[in-house]
Amino acid sequence: MTSTKRKPPPPKKPPQARDALRFSFGLRLGLAFVVAVVAYLFTNGANAPNRPAFEVVRIPGKGKGLIAQRDIQQGELLIREKPLFRVPSSTTESPQQLVWKLLQATSAEGQAAFWDLSYVNLPETVTQRDHVALAIFETNAVAAGQQVGIFPGMARLNHGCSSAFNAVYTWRESEQMLYVHALRNISKGQELLTTYTDTKRPRNERRAFLSSHYGFECTCAVCSLDNAGSLASDRRLTSISEFYRYFATWGNGDITGVEAIEAINNIWKLEEEEGYWSERGRLAADAVWIAAAHSDFSAVRSWARLAAKWYTIELGGDSETVLEVVRFAANPKAHTAWNSREPLPVGGPWPSAG
Ligand SMILES: *[C@@H]1O[C@H](CO)[C@@H](O)[C@H](O)[C@H]1NC(C)=O
């Protein structure tokens, strides 16, 4: 047996801390997808929508937003966009100057799209263009690999919490391109919503964060639940986060593989009840890791199939991450973690996990 003691990747990235020396760009936290760096040719085929899926409209109280112009299928590719520009996630340079310099280097069209975006957290007395540019950047930028990028098209997506968001974005390093996919079926006329932060936490915490970072009071379907509904949702979301922290301790050998898989199944059940569908590919892929480490051949297979299904929805069927889990479903022993812990039947997905 080898002693590969790698933990499953942590479930979420902590927010970027600012410190005195280095300036860290504020950013919307992307979902913690692992996207392999592989030379890969994108073929725009099956998912290419025949009609534009959405239009940009003014939404009262929210500025602009994206509304579905037709019914959209779960997993459909909604946006594929190059960054207008990217910056390192932290810099010792003046951030205003950096953003200004990169912005000036873009096309007139790109600059117009940039200046059309909204911003928060800038006192009205500050009117210097480079300060406004930085505020726009910080309000709209998203994680793009090791860097932070601005994508004027994607930036139009408004926010929803928990079961309220229906679109997810991911950066493909190999293509230097941001992808947005539909997480659910979306009906004509519905607003497309993504999530700006990890919303697996209670309503008061979510609202406080969104208000201080993005300057709005969240009125999404989950934040608008009545008290009883909201309390039940808060309890589920808090529990989900606790189970995430718990199963991650398998990485240090604090819990057994069976306990780790049980925790993953508990997360799945709670998320089913909550209607939280995002990050399931990642969750199942973590289960694949645990099952492979304990040499549970059939569990690797079933978790890998589940991971492939949900990664396909969130990342696109042609993503390298999907191809990788499909390989593990076919050949569990090919997994890096195979047989790195004591052999143990850890178990497959909860029977209703689909
Ligand atoms: C999405 O809609 C299709 C039909 O258009 C349906 O077959 C499918 O079950 C729906 N998926 C979900 C997750 O509701």
Task: Provide a brief overview of the structure.
With 354 residues, the chain is of the alpha+beta class. The protein has 9 helices and 12 strands.
Give the tally of β-strands: 12
Shape: globular
Quickly give the CATH architecture of the largest domain. Beta Complex
Helix content: 25-40%
- Uncertain stretches: 1-22, 29-49
CATH class of the largest domain: Mainly Beta
Instruction: Determine the structural class based on helices, strands and strand pairing.
Output: alpha+beta
**How many structural domains can be distinguished in the coordinates?**
2
- What's the CATH H-level superfamily name of the largest domain? SET domain
Q: What is the helix/strand order? A: EEEEEEHHHEEEEEEHHHHHH
Number of helices: 9
- Order of strands across the widest beta sheet? 4-11-10
Largest sheet data: 3 strands, antiparallel
Give the mean pLDDT.
Answer: 87
CATH topology of the largest domain: Beta-clip-like
How big a fraction of the residues is strand? 5-15%
Bound ligands: 2-acetamido-2-deoxy-beta-D-glucopyranose
Rounded to an integer, what's the Rg over CA atoms?
21 Å
The rounded distance between the terminal residues' Cα atoms is 33 Å
